[in-house]
């Protein structure tokens, strides 16, 4: 199997093509390791857990943001993505049945090869104050309704891989949009029954670069490796904020 991989040394961009032996169960991350260990040790990429938990190896694989560690090489061409097209996907290398195209995540500064600078992504995450705000100190424990816990898990599963950030057309058009991952995490704290803040929590993103910037392409949900639905969180939050404003009028 051939891999066409984006290269960047800090000054010049290029693409290199490598021939990798095809093995049963091989992932894209496995193929990158083979290239680095046997063909070109200068190839740079980020990884950690290798088990789809840390989110470190998110990259653009055949023009779809995915985790390299859980993307099977033989299925890259089989699984057709239904994500909405956007400008960043038209740039760079072209798709071909002759190779798997590997590129860095869109909308983030490339540091070297497939490694992007995540500072912008995490700064947006910090804006939503990603921690519980509660003055209550229970004598023993916080008891939670099982149904509420189940709803909460839809959002606590987020591993902050930034695949949704790279797949969002709005992030490519609006530099200030905080992005679907941060908004989904904000909603996660809003619906947590241990949280003191209620509607006030949602108001952290009640501006044109927050909840109201989303155009509901739903690419975020389609590429999420953990099936987190940011679009639902955004829609629900908008509705709640509108209802509050109607009550105040």
Description:
This protein has a 5-stranded mixed beta sheet. It has a two-stranded antiparallel ribbon with strand order 6-7. It has helices at 28-38, 73-76, 87-90, 119-126, 146-156, 163-167, 169-173, 180-190, 199-202, 219-223, 230-248, and strands spanning 2-8, 13-19, 58-61, 64-67, 100-103, 110-112, 115-116. The mean pLDDT is 93. Helix content is 35%, strand content 12%. The chain has 2 domains: 2-116, Roll (Ubiquitin-like (UB roll)); 119-248, Alpha-helical ferredoxin (Fumarate Reductase Iron-sulfur Protein, Chain B, domain 2, Orthogonal Bundle). It is built from 11 helices and 7 strands. The radius of gyration is 20 Å and the shape is elongated. Helix 5 packs antiparallel against helix 8 and helix 8 crosses helix 11. By secondary structure, it is an alpha+beta fold.
Task: Summarize this structure briefly.
With 249 residues, the chain is of the alpha+beta class. The protein has 11 helices and 7 strands.
Bin the strand percentage.
Answer: 5-15%
CATH architecture tag of the largest domain: Orthogonal Bundle
- Under the CATH scheme, which class of the largest domain? Mainly Alpha
Range of helix content? 25-40%
- What structural class do helix, strand and pairing data support? alpha+beta
Strand-helix topology:
Blueprint: E1 2-8, E2 13-19, H1 28-38, E3 58-61, E4 64-67, H2 73-76, H3 87-90, E5 100-103, E6 110-112, E7 115-116, H4 119-126, H5 146-156, H6 163-167, H7 169-173, H8 180-190, H9 199-202, H10 219-223, H11 230-248
Parallel strand pairs: 1-5
Antiparallel strand pairs: 1-2, 3-4, 3-5, 6-7
């Amino acid at each position: 199997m051939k891999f066409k991989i984006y290269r960047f040394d800090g000054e010049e961009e290029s693409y290199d093509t490598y021939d990798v032996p095809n093995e049963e169960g091989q992932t894209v991350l496995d193929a990158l390791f083979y290239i680095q260990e046997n063909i070109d040790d200068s190839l740079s990429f980020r990884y950690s857990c290798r088990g789809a938990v840390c989110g470190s190896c998110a990259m653009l694989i055949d023009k779809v943001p995915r985790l390299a560690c859980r993307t099977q090489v033989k299925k890259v061409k089989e699984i057709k993505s239904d994500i909405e097209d956007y400008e960043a996907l038209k740039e760079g290398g072209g798709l071909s049945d002759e190779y798997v195209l590997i590129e860095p995540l869109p909308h983030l500064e490339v540091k070297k090869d497939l490694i992007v600078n995540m500072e912008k992504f995490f700064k947006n995450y910090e804006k939503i104050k990603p921690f519980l705000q509660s003055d209550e100190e229970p004598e023993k424990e916080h008891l939670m309704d099982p149904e509420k816990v189940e709803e909460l898990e839809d959002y606590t599963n987020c591993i902050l891989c930034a695949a949704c950030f790279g797949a969002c057309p709005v992030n490519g058009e609006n530099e200030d949009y905080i992005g679907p991952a941060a908004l989904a995490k904000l909603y996660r704290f809003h619906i947590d029954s241990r949280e003191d803040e209620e509607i006030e929590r949602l108001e952290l993103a009640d501006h044109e670069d927050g909840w109201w910037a989303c155009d509901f392409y739903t690419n975020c949900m389609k590429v999420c490796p953990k099936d987190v639905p940011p679009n639902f969180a955004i829609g629900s939050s908008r509705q709640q904020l509108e209802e509050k404003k109607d009550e105040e009028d």
